[in-house]
Design a protein that fits this description.
The complex is a heterodimer of chains A (about 675) and B (about 290). Chain A is built from five helices and 40 strands. The longest helix of chain A is centred in the first third of the chain and has 42 residues, at about 1-45. Chain A has a 22-stranded antiparallel β-barrel. In chain A, strands 1-6-7-4-5 form a five-stranded mixed beta sheet. A two-stranded antiparallel sheet of chain A has the order 2-3. Chain A is globular and about 85 Å long. By secondary structure, chain A is mainly β. In chain B, the strands form two sheets. In chain B, strands 6-5-7-8-9-11-12 form a seven-stranded mixed beta sheet, sandwiched between helices. Chain B contains eleven helices and twelve strands. The chains are: A mainly beta (about 675), B alpha/beta (about 290).
């Protein structure tokens, strides 16, 4: 009897214990399940780009952690992306080593998913939005014309404006001062002023921002093409206003931008306007309406992008060029859900590019002295695209094509095929193959001036890029890693050539003219790794390129100073590898409430060739420290901490000057931001 | 699970099968998993909705006739659905699909609205003047801001700074010592796990600072009290929201359940120094000895 009672008692205790254990499991199991869902959602690239693309995102947290001063500054942290300069233009984004000249039209720049570029020359501008107005930057490497049309030749930069949490207004004011110390001088200036206001609820939202930024490099001695040494003051000043409004399915985006930077001169010489201001004015308005009949999701977007720039052409700044053009774009896209996890995206667009003028005028009288054969040059391009998506598990597949008809060049068909295999929640493999197409701009086709700086070539063909790439992505805890191998083929790349050229029956000897380069290719590897915890963060972005020399050509001796000729090809000028790395940390303030933070970002380029020589490896680093408490944030940044002059090859003119300064002198930058 | 509860899914399946043959479905349901919380909410939703709502396996395409997807749990909510459908989702405390779903979305909130929550807490603890809210997921920022604002109106100072790293919880709790009268543990999946719950419990007992849990299950596990919305109640709220959508009306993007569930764990309350007034104790929904 006693034994039986004991058995019952033990059984009862076991039952009670197992019941308690089950209850405990139930209490936490639900939250564990939901935490997994958050990890799945945060691992997805919530971008405009389809996830079956090679995308890197720089978010607001990373922008603040590393105190980036501009979008261009942030782009340097991405594997495969360099921000270079030509003799005439600063901040030229360069993807996978595919060089752009100062009319940088091989990388598509978008603001809130709206393509923004110059109708005359095709260039995008990553400085149309100040860094204080940016929520995140989405960077897609590789050809992407099927999705985004012309100009997405080597990559895409989408700048996403800041947004508030639903129902919580976002108001930020920031300001900064900086002083630069170089070999020859020091200067102080207001470096940044910005205001952001945004408010949104379920049905409507408003975003307004205005920002100003200025970066003046210390004076440095520059020896130009005539071997004249002069003190050059490099500067880059931008003023932007952005507005975004939405209500229901309607949205309106407006961007106004004014930029001034020093001009390197048409011939890198004082006589050709070097050091004088180069002005840009841009205005973009885009309206879109999303509407959804029961069988589809439709979206119409209409955009007007008007851009004007003025460049100096002589030492006295009395002769200037005025360039004005407007793009009018209408686009309609539709998404259809199909049975069996399939969906279909189709769309069409019409892009009307009006190059209104590129004339030379006397700055004092405004009298036009040359029209450069550019008045009212109009080009239109129509396109239809379609993508079939399969969104099942573990495979995701995309097959897409874009048919383009360009009024000047006829037809093109570009296609893409992408596949993602989700090994598990934290690991995936991607395979991507894609093509891009870009028709020459009115400037590349028709420009003709006297004396000649560069000649447009009506016979130049559209350029085309094709790539295949494979990526492995992994995330474990706070670590994220992405490794990519790729092969790219460049066909008919539009470049500035130099030699004898005939146009309209007129022969030009040893002149610059637009031409198609011979076919060349490149193989590369990109590695990105990030770690982020509450107290510590780091990133590494490594890029290796083995570029083919199929486009190599002879560069004639400049005919002065006894200099010999040399060789030129795209990848001759590009470093074999680049490395960017950053570490950041923060700690509670020992002086009460608040937090101290700090970061170091370093960049390294391996050695690069110029036309006649080789540049040594280049390295520079930025160091930041700061304090934040509540909505108030102070930061001090020492940019280019070693003070070295960082140079890159002068790859556009390829004459006497062989390298140009990318970063010059130290700069202390103090910023204060107040979020309220 | 009660016998009554077991009958509901069987009836639902029969109804679903019948409806499947009858014609097109306007509403379909997707469950994150067979976990009890999702299943219980779905069953309650199904019963309150009154019509058969077929379950679509996670990851499978929804029928072309569907106008509304009722998603239960985060994994179900973050699936890719056509923009033409309205997505109504529940028991997803750590996520919002507002930026990922192309069409309209309505979230059935898991926690009580700020005002009734504060009302329940001050009833349980009439001397409550300083409340700390623990949370970590970014998606909870707006809810926490509302809690701070409503606390100000009711005379309860709510401190709700985000705990970015859940591993920093012990430090955060130490910083709260002497500065708060109670702690509200928000239903945050990033923060709530067995380890963190034990840390909060030990802190609460050692310093006699009561903490309030967002589910009845956590109160049973040692939280002095719980103020929550029952899973079944969320299901009923969801059914109401789906009916509103089908009528062609637009419910708010976040819908709170009107009915709260309050429970007290007497042993834990005693350990944490919480003396619930007798008249309140008699009115609560559940008392754990």
């Amino acid at each position: 009897m006693m034994k039986a009672m004991k058995n019952i008692l033990v059984a009862a205790i076991v039952a009670l214990q197992s019941g308690a254990a089950r209850a405990a499991d139930d209490a936490f199991e639900f939250f564990e399940e939901e935490a997994k869902a958050i990890r799945i959602a945060s691992a997805r690239p919530e971008t405009v780009f389809n996830s079956v693309s090679n995308v890197t995102v720089i978010d607001r947290r990373m922008i603040e952690t590393y105190n980036y001063e501009s979008v261009a500054d942030a782009l340097e942290a991405v594997a495969g992306v360099m921000v270079w300069r030509t003799y005439a233009m600063q901040r030229v984004p360069t993807f996978r080593g595919a060089l752009q000249e100062h009319y940088a039209n091989k990388v598509l720049v978008m603001i809130d998913n709206v393509p923004a570029w110059n109708a005359v020359t095709g260039e995008g501008d990553v400085d149309r939005v100040g860094i204080d107005s940016v929520e995140r930057i989405e960077i897609l490497r590789g050809p992407a014309s099927v999705l985004y049309g012309s100009n997405a030749l080597t990559g895409v930069v989408n700048i996403v404006l800041r947004r508030p949490e639903n129902g919580t207004p976002l108001t930020v004011a920031s300001a900064g001062v900086a002083t630069g110390h170089g070999r020859f001088s020091a200067a102080a200036e207001v470096s940044r002023v910005a205001g952001v206001y945004s408010r949104a609820d379920d049905d409507s939202g408003l975003f307004l921002s205005a920002d100003f930024s200025s970066r003046r490099a210390p004076t440095f001695a520059f020896t130009d093409d005539t071997r004249t040494t002069f003190e050059l003051n490099e500067y880059f000043v931008v003023r932007n206003v952005n507005a975004h409004w939405r209500r229901g399915g309607h949205s309106l985006l407006a961007n106004l931008s004014n930029g001034v930077q020093d001009y390197g001169g048409n011939a890198i010489s004082l006589a050709s306007g070097a050091g004088k201001p180069h002005d840009k004015e841009m205005a973009l308005v885009s309206y879109s309406h999303a509407f959804g009949p029961s069988w589809s999701a439709l979206k119409y977007t209409g955009t007007v992008d008007r851009q004007r720039r003025q460049i100096p052409r002589d030492a006295a700044d009395s002769l200037r060029s005025d360039i004005l053009g407007t793009r009018y774009v209408n686009a309609l896209t539709a998404e259809f859900e199909l049975p069996g996890a399939f969906s279909l995206e189709v769309g069409g667009s019409h892009d009307y590019r009006a190059a209104e003028r590129y004339n030379n005028f006397v700055s004092t009288s405004q009298a036009v002295v040359a029209d450069n054969k550019m008045d009212d040059r109009l080009v239109w391009e129509g396109a239809l695209f379609s993508q079939l998506l399969y969104g099942g598990e573990p495979w995701k597949l995309v097959l897409g094509a874009r048919y383009t008809h360009n009024a000047a060049f006829g037809d093109d068909l570009s296609s893409r095929l992408s596949a993602v295999y989700m090994i598990n929640e934290g690991n995936s493999l991607k395979f991507m193959a894609g093509q891009s197409f870009r028709a020459p701009t009115p400037f590349e086709l028709y420009f003709q001036n006297d004396p000649v700086t560069v000649l447009g070539n009506p016979g130049v063909k559209p350029e085309k890029t094709s790539s295949v790439e494979a990526s492995y992505l992994t995330s474990r805890g706070r670590m994220f890693g992405q490794a990519t191998l790729y092969y790219v083929d460049y066909l008919n790349t539009i470049v500035r050539n130099r030699g004898d050229f005939t146009r309209d029956g007129q022969a030009y000897l040893n002149a610059n003219f637009y031409d198609n380069a011979r076919r060349y290719d490149a193989k590369g590897a990109e590695l990105e790794a990030r770690y982020s915890s509450r107290r510590f963060g780091s990133f590494v972005a490594f890029n290796y390129i083995h570029g083919g020399r199929g486009d190599e050509r002879e560069v004639a001796a400049p005919g002065v100073f006894g200099l010999p000729g040399g060789q030129a090809s795209n990848f001759r000028f590009v470093p074999r590898y680049t490395l960017s790395a950053g570490v950041s940390g923060n700690a509670p303030s020992p002086y009460g409430a608040g937090e101290l933070f700090g970061s170091v970002v370093a960049h390294h380029y391996s050695s690069m060739e110029t036309v006649r020589s080789r540049l040594p490896p280049q390295a520079w680093a930025d160091v930041s420290v700061g304090f934040k408490r509540g909505g108030l944030r102070h930061a001090v940044t020492l940019r280019n901490a070693t003070g070295s002059a960082i140079v890159v090859p002068e790859y556009v003119r390829q004459r006497v000057v062989e390298s140009m300064p990318l970063v010059n002198g130290r700069r202390f930058d103090y910023t204060i931001a107040w979020k309220f | 699970m009660s016998k009554q509860c077991r009958k509901v899914p069987i009836a639902a399946l029969l109804l679903a099968a019948a409806a499947g043959t009858a014609g097109a479905q306007q509403v379909v349901a997707v469950l994150a998993s067979e976990q009890r919380a999702y299943r219980e909410t779905y069953e309650s939703f199904q019963a309150a909705f009154g019509e058969a709502v077929p379950l679509i396996p996670l990851g499978e395409a929804i029928p072309a006739s569907a106008k509304v997807v009722a998603a239960f749990g985060g994994k179900a909510a973050v699936q890719r659905y056509p923009a033409r459908v309205a997505l109504v989702y529940a028991i997803v405390p750590g996520l919002s699909v507002k930026d990922t779903h192309g069409g309209p979305s309505i979230k059935i909130m898991m926690e009580p609205e700020a005002e009734p929550l504060l009302g329940a807490l001050t009833a349980l603890q009439p001397k409550l003047k300083r409340l700390a809210a623990l949370w970590s997921s970014e998606s909870r920022a707006a809810n926490m801001a509302r809690l701070v604002e409503r606390g100000g109106v009711r005379g309860v100072a709510v401190s709700a700074s985000r705990l970015e790293d859940p591993d920093a919880l012990p430090g955060r709790l130490r910083a709260l010592h002497g500065k708060v009268d109670a702690i509200w543990l928000s239903p945050d999946p990033v923060l709530i796990n067995a380890k963190n719950f034990e840390i909060i419990k030990q802190f609460s007992y050692a310093n006699r600072i009561p903490f309030y849990a967002p589910t009845q299950g956590l109160a049973e596990q040692g939280a002095p009290a719980g103020v929550s919305v029952a899973f079944a109640e969320m299901g009923r709220t969801m059914a109401g929201a789906v009916k509103t959508v089908l009528r062609g009306e637009q419910p708010p993007a976040e819908v709170y359940s009107a009915k709260l569930s309050v429970c007290v764990n007497l042993t834990a309350a005693s350990a944490a120094g919480l003396n619930v007034p007798a008249e309140v104790l008699t009115a609560v929904d559940k008392v754990f000895p």
